[in-house]
Predict the structure of precorrin-2 dehydrogenase.
Amino acid sequence: MAEKPEFPVVQGGGSLIIAWQIRDKKVLVVGGGEVAAGRILHCLNADARVTVVSPLARLNPEVAYRVAQGQVTHIDRNFQPSDLDDSSIAMVLVAVDDPAASTTIWKLCKERRIPANIADVPSECDFYFGSVHRDGPLQIMVSTNGKGPRLAAMIRRFIAKQLPSDAGRAIETIGQLRVKLRQIAPRQEDGPKRMAWMTKVSEAYSWDEMCDLSEEDMDNLLRYYPSGKVPSLDGLKGMRANPEVGQLDVFDGSFGFSVGA
Amino acid sequence: MAEKPEFPVVQGGGSLIIAWQIRDKKVLVVGGGEVAAGRILHCLNADARVTVVSPLARLNPEVAYRVAQGQVTHIDRNFQPSDLDDSSIAMVLVAVDDPAASTTIWKLCKERRIPANIADVPSECDFYFGSVHRDGPLQIMVSTNGKGPRLAAMIRRFIAKQLPSDAGRAIETIGQLRVKLRQIAPRQEDGPKRMAWMTKVSEAYSWDEMCDLSEEDMDNLLRYYPSGKVPSLDGLKGMRANPEVGQLDVFDGSFGFSVGA
């Protein structure tokens, strides 16, 4: 039994990377500088309700802009422990140049079991941030587990350059395939067949190939579902309607004549 | 003032993607099937102390293997509310085919403010998982924000193929640059100069270019720090010692002669 098992080998030293859901939840950001500005944007991109605690005079231009636009709620003073009395606060992000105050806030959060991140103090963080590429529904987060935020940003830029253009839109289109499949095979007992077919689809094409497929291609692909088969990429593209004769939902054999006429 | 500001525009609809720190923290996994196996691996890769609650007979081979290897603690029965009495539990992950039991566990977790994920029930999740590429210190997480886990895995595979080979090792090497820089410029007041130079480095080379650099190249690069300058990639490579004459720490002008001898 000393043989290597077929199961993945544990690679310690990483983080648990997760997509936290903070839509409509309250996030308290303490501080209003450049780091706070980045945190605030991350939270707004995830539809959180953000409150910033910081004297107005210390807000950087981006934070001041978001306050002025009403994108965040602003409390114009330094942090007070009573700021945590609101039991609906889901997360606290601290970015102030005051290690003693930061540690106090961290401890208060831990007493209340509120997830918190104290910028630049790894030992006072339930979680770290990474560098995130965003394109519509697609989010790609790069973490180097402490080897440097600049390095993470470089890798993020590298990845963004490799991605097919318009990747976000393509994901929406591909996502539609699942939705449409559920429409044509809605029954609970269809579940295993649906899953098996979707797996076959994901094995038949690479992702960048799928990005080239149009909504029409997706509809053509769905016609294969009853048979449980998946056409080759060329086969699928070959089903595209000839633009000269407009959309042909079903090839009825009259194609050559109508074009030739 | 109706002009477009220079600040990033908020793109709602995303998640807050974070690198959760669970080293040496207790994670309770309820269930022992295929989904649980994936969750357990994610947690072990982040050095968590994992307890699996599930009847032995229902463990899948991978989970049974990890139990047998002592990689996780096993409680051989169904979940009981008293499993949450341990106040040091940092996270709960549920993957059982029992919606009623799942909802009960979710509510118990929320009463106790324990972050939790109930597989396949988005409304009962503080966070979602994505598809993660791992290579040493590098972790890249792909989320399609609900457009399908298979799609996220496809994109993860696509990205993994684009990455320079041995990327993890390269990140270690590049990370060393920061460490060595701190050694040659350790003073607090050097901070701004260090940061400015590191920024210049990250702007001078792309990440895949940096992956081609050896430790020797990094040492050569560091010689430019006092001047605040950064050489071109070709310039840096040109400093490489001629292997025929061994390592040349400093070019002393005798290079041509020793080679020609």
About this structure: Residues 130-163 of chain A form a domain with the Double Stranded RNA Binding Domain fold (CATH 3.30.160). Chain A has three domains: 26-129, 130-163, 167-243. Residues 132 and 141 of chain A are 4 Å apart (CA to CA).
